[in-house]
Write a structure and sequence with these properties.
This protein is α/β, with parallel strands linked by helices. It has 9 helices and 20 strands. The protein has one domain: Carbon-nitrogen hydrolase (Nitrilase/N-carbamoyl-D-aminoacid amidohydrolase, 4-Layer Sandwich). The chain is 30% helix and 24% strand. Strands 1, 2, 4, 5, 6, 9, 10 and 20 form an 8-stranded mixed beta sheet that branches. Strands 11-12-13-15-18-19 form a 6-stranded mixed beta sheet, with no helix packed on it. The protein has a 4-stranded mixed beta sheet with strand order 3-16-17-14, with no helix packed on it. Helix 2 packs parallel to helix 7.
């Protein structure tokens, strides 16, 4: 009987070893399927003509999970948009291109299995992500901060790789087209620039925007978001009260306000004190139908007390436009993400503003370009 038990235990051990080996091999497989990307682009211009002072060009993309299956696939799609702009005569050495909030954050989706991109719900996609990266996820959970530890871990476990991909992708696009590029935003743990490279640390997550020069190098330090709001506030740290970065560009002094940072009058007052001339606002609105729904308020604590706008008083769209009026002395470009990721839909219509000049993109499918001549 003892011999049979030993044989049985040996067989079970071998089967477990075979199963673990098969699972380990499965986690390393990352097949890339064929995918045809939609490169339709609609151009929206704001009144003005070229005057040698440059322009702000907003690129509102339409993106989906499969666009992030590889960095090269995403690069080809974004380069296609910029090529349309170049063919239309909208790119020059003084052009500042502005991309939307979180266009870099979604790099956490790069290099996964086909089932991950084909999932119907984000919850299902995250289960595939966890199954494919068990050790990385465990390490991310150990280091996670904030109230939503899994959301933190999903971003943290790929952070160093994401930072490299972000710099390679957007620095390369800036260099290829010879433009200053505000690369939307990316959530990373304590990002900073050292020796020309975007680096991460083991601290809390921040929503950061990096500006790339015409030669592809990084200008200054990342601009971190001052006031995080729903839905990222449970795992992204707010920078709080700190000076905004000012970037010297061929078109003038530029500042970046990420998302709802542009809602705060104090932010705009500080930019005026810093003699900023140009403002880029990478933004996003998540939720189907939310753009036309009643505005839900600041949803941060503490909320600013010097804003005469109450929740549900206007739509989300009108709130963004009303709250941006504080930037009217500057030439500003607010750019929203388009498309959807599983069951999560991005909405918003990008707009530009300079004194009495205001324009916004239309509604509908496909990417949008909006241009403001300075």
């Amino acid at each position: 009987m003892s011999l049979m038990r030993k044989i049985l235990m040996s067989v079970v051990a071998l089967l477990c070893l075979a199963a673990l080996t098969t699972y380990a091999l499965w986690t390393t497989q990352r097949p890339v399927g064929h995918y045809l990307s939609d490169l339709r682009v609609t151009f929206e211009g704001v009144d003005g003509v070229p005057a040698g002072r440059g322009n702000l060009l907003g690129v509102q993309p339409e993106l989906f999970p499969a666009d992030y299956q590889s960095v090269e696939r995403l690069r080809l799609k974004l380069a296609g948009y910029l090529q349309h702009a170049q063919d239309a005569g909208l790119l020059n050495g003084k052009t500042i291109v502005v991309l939307p909030e979180h266009i870099g954050t979604w790099l956490w989706a790069v290099g996964e299995k086909n089932e991950f991109y084909q999932a119907a719900q984000r919850r299902d996609a995250e289960q595939w992500l966890a199954a494919s990266n068990p050790l990385d996820l465990l390490a991310g959970l150990v280091q996670a901060h904030g109230d939503d530890r899994f959301a933190d871990a999903y971003l943290r476990m790929k952070a160093a790789r994401m930072a490299d991909q972000y710099q390679q992708l957007f620095g390369g696009l800036a260099r290829q087209f010879g433009v200053t590029l505000v690369a939307g935003s990316i959530i990373l743990p304590k990002p900073s620039v050292a020796d020309g490279r975007l680096r991460t640390d083991s601290g809390p997550l921040y929503n950061a925007s990096v500006v790339f020069a015409t030669d592809g190098s990084i200008l200054g330090q990342p601009q971190l978001q001052h006031f995080t709001s729903h839905p990222t506030r449970r795992y992204v740290q707010s920078l709080g009260d700190a000076p905004f970065n000012v970037f010297d560009t061929p078109a003038g002094k530029l500042a970046v306000l990420i998302g709802t940072d542009s809602w705060h009058p104090a932010s705009h007052a500080q930019l005026r004190q810093q003699d900023v001339q140009l403002l880029a606002v990478p933004a996003s609105v998540l939720g189907r139908g939310r753009w036309s729904s009643p505005w839900r308020g600041f949803r941060i604590s503490p909320a600013p007390t010097d804003v005469a706008l109450s929740p549900r008083e206007v739509s989300e769209a009108h709130a963004w436009q009303r709250l941006s009026e504080a930037s009217a002395p500057l030439a500003s470009m607010t750019v929203f993400m388009g498309g959807h990721f599983w069951n999560q839909f991005y909405e918003g219509q990008s707009f530009a503003r300079q004194r009495e000049r205001f324009g916004q993109v239309g509604d509908g499918r496909g990417a949008r370009l909006i241009n403001l001549w300075l």
